[in-house]
Amino acid sequence: MSGQESSLVTLGLDLGGTKIAAGLLEGEELLAFVERPTPRGGAAVVRALAEAAREAAAGRPVTAVGLGTPGPLDFDRGVVRFAPNLPGLRNFPLRARLEAALGLPVVIENDANAAALAEHHLGAARGARHSLFVTVSTGIGGGVIIDGRVHRGAFGQGGEIGHLTVLPGGPLCGCGNRGCLEAVASGRALERDAAYAYGRPVPVPELFARKDATARALLDGAAGYLGQALASLQKVFDPEVIVLGGGVALGGGEAFLRRIESAYRAHLRGWRRAPLRLARLGREAGVIGAALAARLAARS
Amino acid sequence: MSGQESSLVTLGLDLGGTKIAAGLLEGEELLAFVERPTPRGGAAVVRALAEAAREAAAGRPVTAVGLGTPGPLDFDRGVVRFAPNLPGLRNFPLRARLEAALGLPVVIENDANAAALAEHHLGAARGARHSLFVTVSTGIGGGVIIDGRVHRGAFGQGGEIGHLTVLPGGPLCGCGNRGCLEAVASGRALERDAAYAYGRPVPVPELFARKDATARALLDGAAGYLGQALASLQKVFDPEVIVLGGGVALGGGEAFLRRIESAYRAHLRGWRRAPLRLARLGREAGVIGAALAARLAARS
């Protein structure tokens, strides 16, 4: 970022299944951060985003607005194609509606791509040229950053790391295919396998707390597939740093990271490895990344 | 490529395990193409490359020289780290020796990356912004092209598609890890499995010619893993076009491509797909790509 551009005040919005967040980024500093619950339905979501934006800006002039949102996006038209956790936003023209509500142009970005951008420029991958971000939570998402920019790919599917096939013929994934990383290593996959193993529902935090052989086997299984997937990507995309975020990765902390790293190394004998790091920006990553996306778009 | 740069005459060299090739590229036209056997040993290889270069140039002034070579490269130092099919080139300062022999600066590129670049700009992926090239021959290599340039990655490992883990715990690969794409879908892997199934050595061309259930099962197996790997990459790197080259892919032709495509589609239910195409530039891809690499380097 050049000095002139980064001194501009940029608004970042983050639309999640349960929360909406807004933040104001000047240079590398987050001047304001507000959160509120996500309402149901497209029109209500747009109103809530606009209110959060005005609250975060608090009258300061904003030069650019970025919005991070789940779901496969049609970047050209600014439309959310579908978002499983946001009913009512199927094929919704989110960008145009929000631009009308704010009276400002809006840049949209996939939420995982936005977090990847934030960690790349201002978080755990700071200083790298190429980095990979993987978020392990209910599902698994990610972002590929090349030369400081999000690699969206030809169809906007770039960075969908959760859908790498890691176990041919494995469990059915929400995407309709079998053996995706998400289907064997996400929070939902862990809970599916824990419920089967224990015969009752066991949430992920309880799994991390338990010290029995079953919990260990479940976590080693998920960590093994994560390490395998990251090792595969090291040989195709070859990032300089790999950042892990999301509730499951951060909930497991350094201990879970070491399990992932052990599998990652075991799949990279003879190859060079990028360091694995935990994400640093926490719940603010989304708004910071959305603001950075708007700033980068203004530049190009 | 701008008109001015592409009108310059660039020399492309391609160092293979059995053949050395040299070609002269002006604009999009290959003015000359010469081939000779690869001698043993670093010094002899440098002499043969220089002779092939002079023969191809035939006295015309050359503005840039590119060399495609196998093996993991140290791009910064211009050194071939190791190349299984080129004994005597371990940690060999190939670029410096060739520059001394030619009296011209030389740009080196991994041979699969060079072929990827050639197919992207002048072959089967012409017109695409991002493309993926996979070469299936004795081994499996590849190249990732983003915005018209090779993605080398942080450690020069970018595009090593043959080492994606596609079958956890699967056969041991030459790289020392298990279940790599190369270990289950390359020419050598097919011949290993054919020798076991038939109880005698069966070369790949014979496998393609046979119509029995065993040959069909062997080829379907390899095609299945290729399709799975390409589908995984569609969701992370999201190319606009995927190009398949190399002796095994081209030897199998449209029939083998259809088997790969069937697996590729089966792993991409609900996702957008890039078209799969066979490589078009044949044995000239290496020298064309090496010349393009030199041209692009001169530009930046």
Structural key phrases:
alpha/beta; five-stranded mixed sheet; Nucleotidyltransferase, domain 5; 10 helices; homodimer; 300 residues; 40% helix
Report what the structure shows.
Two copies of one chain form a homodimer. Chain A is α/β, with parallel strands linked by helices and 300 residues long. Chain A has two domains: 3-114 and 283-299, Nucleotidyltransferase, domain 5; 127-280, Nucleotidyltransferase, domain 5 (2-Layer Sandwich), CATH 3.30.420.40. Chain A is built from ten helices and twelve strands. In chain A, the strands form three sheets. In chain A, strands 3-2-1-4-7 form a five-stranded mixed sheet. In chain A, strand 2 and strand 3 (29-37) form a beta hairpin. In chain A, helix 2 (42-57) packs across helix 3, helix 4 (111-122) packs across helix 10 (285-299) and helix 8 crosses helix 9 (247-266). The first copy, chain A, is globular, with a radius of gyration of 19 Å. The mean pLDDT of chain A is 93. At the A-B interface, strand 9 and helix 8 of A face strand 9 and helix 8 of B.
